[in-house]
Amino acid sequence: MNLANRITVARILLVPIIMFFLLIKVKFPHIRIEEFSITYNQIIAALIFIIAASTDSLDGYIARKRKLVTNLGKLLDPLADKLLVTAVLVSLVEMDKVDAWIVIVIISREWAVTGLRQIALLEGTVMAASKWGKAKTAAQITAIIALLINNFPFTFVHFPFDIVASWVAAIITLYSGIEYFVKNKHVIDFSEKSQ
């Protein structure tokens, strides 16, 4: 359990804390500025999410720089990312802040690509993250933060940035998933022949 893996585990442990602040049935005080309103628990959840999301690049950087790449890390890192995004998106559906179909598209893509990566690993192939995969991550994080903070500051100019960002995240997520499967279709073909 090296430093990089500890950071990854910490990201996983932050997931239930974020969900606690999002879903707890306690009346938290609100901050109100004109028509904008947000509860303190949402602000706390958003800050914890930003910290957790920022550790994604950090643990990978540390693992590569210090030559701490391990099989455990290869397993935990994508799992931590999926748990974080999935848990927060499902919480946002429960809070009626995002359409369920957008969350279904995002979660389905995430787990489908994870399955493809596992098949590739079993065949001895490592699927590198594509530029669309990185864009997908950035789009998802941007959309989630916008939803968590109730579209601040765009609510003051009456622009639904959080909704637009959610749609953009869903479209990029879907496209990047299709790209992964098209570029790596040989992995599926190979696994079918070996069965």
What does this structure look like?
The structure is a single chain. This protein has 195 residues and is mainly α. 74% of the residues lie in helices and 4% in strands. The protein is built from 7 helices and 2 strands, in the order αββαααααα. It has helices at residues 3-23, 40-65, 71-94, 100-122, 131-148, 161-183, 185-194; strands spanning 30-33, 36-39. It has a two-stranded antiparallel sheet with strand order 1-2. A hairpin with a 2-residue loop joins strand 1 and strand 2 (36-39). The longest helix is centred in the first third of the chain and has 26 residues, at 40-65. It is globular and about 55 Å long. The chain starts with a helix and ends with a helix. It holds the Pfam family CDP-OH_P_transf.
Quickly describe the structure.
The chain is mainly α and 195 residues long. It contains seven helices and two strands. It has helices at 3-23, 40-65, 71-94, 100-122, 131-148, 161-183, 185-194; strands at residues 30-33, 36-39.
Counting DSSP E segments of at least 2 residues, the number of strands comes to 2
The overall pLDDT, averaged over residues, is: 88
Which range does the strand content fall in? under 5%
Q: Termini distance?
A: 35 Å
Note the run of SSEs as H and E: HEEHHHHHH
Largest sheet: spatial strand order: 1-2
Count of separate DSSP helical elements: 7
What class, by secondary structure content?
A: mainly alpha
Label the overall shape: globular
Low-confidence stretches: 190-195
Question: Which value, in Å, is the CA radius of gyration?
Answer: 18 Å
The biggest sheet amounts to: 2 strands, antiparallel
Percent in helix:
over 70%
